[in-house]
Amino acid sequence: MSQAPDPWERREVERARFRKKQGEPRDLFDELQRNQRPLGLLFFLALLLLAEVPLIEARGRLYLSMGATIGLLFVLASCRDYSEPLIHFFKRLPNIVWLVGLLYGMASFFWAPNTTVATGELVRLLAGAGAYLVAAYTLKDRRELGVVLGGVICLGCGIALYDIAHFAQKTGLQSGHFSANNLSILGTHESVGSLLALLLPLALTLGLSRAIEERGRLLAQAASLVLGFAWIMVRCRSAWLGGIVALLVMGFLVWRYPLSERTTKRQGRQSWKENLTSPLVLVVAALVVMALVGGVAPLLSRRAAALINPLEDGSLGVRLVMWKGALQMLSLKPVLGWGLGGYLILQGRWTHLGDAPEQVLLYGTGHQNIAHNYYLQWAAETGGIGLLLFVLTMFCLLGYAAKALPRLAQGWEKTLLIACFATLLGALAEVAGSPAFQFCGVWAIFWTLAGILLASARLADPEPKLQRELPTLGAGAVFAVLVCAGGLWLGKRVWDPRGEPRGVFQLVEQSKGPYHPGETLRWRALYRTSQGAELPTHPGTEWVAPVWFEQAPGSVPRPVQSQEWALHRVAKDTTTGYSELSLRLPPAETGMVQVQAVYQDSFGRTYSASRVADVTK
Q1: In sequence order, what are the residues at sequence separation of 6 or more whose Cβ sits closer than 8 angstroms to the Cβ of residue 312?
Q2: Where does the O-antigen ligase-related domain start and stop, copy by copy (predicted)?
Q3: Does residue 311 have a pLDDT over 80?
Q4: How many domains does the chain have?
């Protein structure tokens, strides 16, 4: 009867397997030179994350994002030896579909409503493309891949520790309302939540794998504790959803394709002890203890209560309105969309939330103008073609990795494949309710992990043949069409205006007559539903006024289709969101002055109202 191997002997054997060989360079300069590509990728990813910090002025954030994007492209161009010949790169189906989708997204720049906002979106696309190509095409071995993964996890841990310390020092874990405590170094809880949801499955998978030396596993487990506690504390429900999906997929894949050899039947009597003391159980138990002792549990219970009654959650109602606006924009231009940045500028016309187009062009945009659903916003900006290409790219990439997973031997590459596969699936579930993909930092890290996924799967298919991928392309095309058509049909069915009575839209005079030349006339747009509820009219109300008027103080002009001018101005009580028009009459103008306003309700139904003022001497 054979005995189980001594655990200390097994540990020494494992340490010997990872021990460095004699003669390896240990000089710091030599190490930096050997790792210049992964370190360059990490440096520019850090700059992209830094560009999301709101403490930096808008111009500085723009320079950081543009400089980091150029730097990623420089790292790609300066590489002298790629991981495979270029012809092999284009024989892999995910790369072909990805390239077509990227070129189409860049082409939508030319029919964008504003080139300045579209340029910012173009920089985001190029940042993701550069990160993907550097990770998939220039990183050649496990050492470089390990440096990138370790560096990205360290960046996430640094952000998590800063947010934990800031949250505890400013408000305390036991006090304060959620709305006062949901800020992060990256802006809001949604941005940092998405980043943590990307990194937590990575760290946890690395902590479970015996393909990594013991010191690396312990560091990965410690990083899992930091990232996991911050992920819980951030209280972002979309990030919770994405993280849970990723962890469930990771657990299934680790069970189905073990990262190390299973215990033998003779050792089965001790397997329950090993499972009880496994890193996964210890990390989960530590997170539960930290949540209870740290005082986060009451905050979590209040935040999670909205999941039980989602219809009573105000933020969900706002997101439904934003999603509805994206669907209405898509229905008006279903093929090509409105162009890059079109939703950010024009969404207020249908949602009456966020900022007016003039405010976006003058002061920039933020979370208030984002749809909080990447699929719908991307469809509104690039049309059905753009949405189909994005879904098809993700399907082909994940399908390519899924076919490679059974053919990979147990080890580092399988660990990377499982970690990135689960992370990407979780991210694709999360972006249905998160705005984080609209920012360069999280977007670039997502595509970095996609590139690492392809680099790991490539080992199982060193000689690609495009003919073998044609069935996957066909299945992906059918899947993408079904997903897009089903989503649009469901959206139209849910927000069908039939049976909903029309509201009342009217213009109310704010200035009292009689009117004389040289005076200022003011009108306010009001909209009430059939139940009498008053809804915002700013942004989104289109004013049509005579061409002769002079601009009144505090108003911002904007040309309309009739070559006349429209004015949008928020009333002093900005919480109501009224839209007002101010006209200063010329000194010699008399007679009838007519103004007209056009408004669309949440179902896309158009209302029109007009008023006439009699100007006398």
Answers
A1: 306
A2: 223-391
A3: no
A4: 2
